[in-house]
Amino acid sequence: MASTSAVRAGDGAAGRIRKAATALASDNQPLIADIRKTINTMKEIAVEMEKLNRTQEVKQLENAVIELLNAAEECTCFYNVLQSVGNNYEPGPQLTNFKKLFEDEASKIKRGFSSNHQNHNLLRQFREAVWNVHHAGQPMPGEEQEDIVMTSTEVGLLNTVCPISGKSVTELSDPVRSMDCKHIYDKKAISHFMKNNTKCPVAGCPKVLQYNRVVCDPLLPVEIEEFRAMSKATVHADVIEDFTALDEED
């Protein structure tokens, strides 16, 4: 009886830690979203500055973007640490040193982040928008020597097509994301799906879906918009390459 009570007490403690970590992580998401929205606004301002040939101000904006990317990375790391601790914490026989637990997890997660933001998708979009003001149709310096491939994971999207409706996430009028497996769905399609199924419809995903954990989190609209901009830039680059090839043939 005593061991059963201990297990229940442990489950209760782990559950409370998980709920607290999830709440704190969720509170952090709007800040990350605001940072990324601010970077997109700064890109628009930089384009107008470049049109006026105010090069110094454009450079200052670019430096500010790099600083914001550093801040966004710190916030994202904090978010991931909270999620990881909340999902994996199991109480042991000794009191948990949460300070050390968080520091160890932060150190492990930070190793997965790049210290060089020069190739970050948002910084690249900023520079490309400024470059195209006076050099539309021309590749940016350095692109002649390397082929830079951008992927959806760079803007935080685990999948770019709803596994139920088959629509691209950029076409969804009401996108939602699982807080557990991070897959994205059309809200109407997943709501209908969950009436008879609880397992994530993405092939190979073992996660069980819960209605209150399939939501449109603050970051999702921002990440979808970034992916839309990234996709347009890729198509534009492909068109330029096709025309270049035609010119060479002539």
UniProtKB/TrEMBL annotation:
GO cellular component, as recorded: nucleus; Smc5-Smc6 complex
Gene3D superfamilies referenced in this protein's UniProt entry, alphabetically: Zinc/RING finger domain, C3HC4 (zinc finger) (3.30.40.10)
Pathway where it operates: Protein modification; protein sumoylation
One MF annotation (Gene Ontology) recorded for this entry: SUMO ligase activity
All residue ranges annotated as the SP-RING-type domain in the record: 144-229
Pfam family, one: zf-Nse
Isomerase keyword on record: no
Family in the record: Belongs to the NSE2 family.
Protein name (Swiss-Prot/TrEMBL): SP-RING-type domain-containing protein
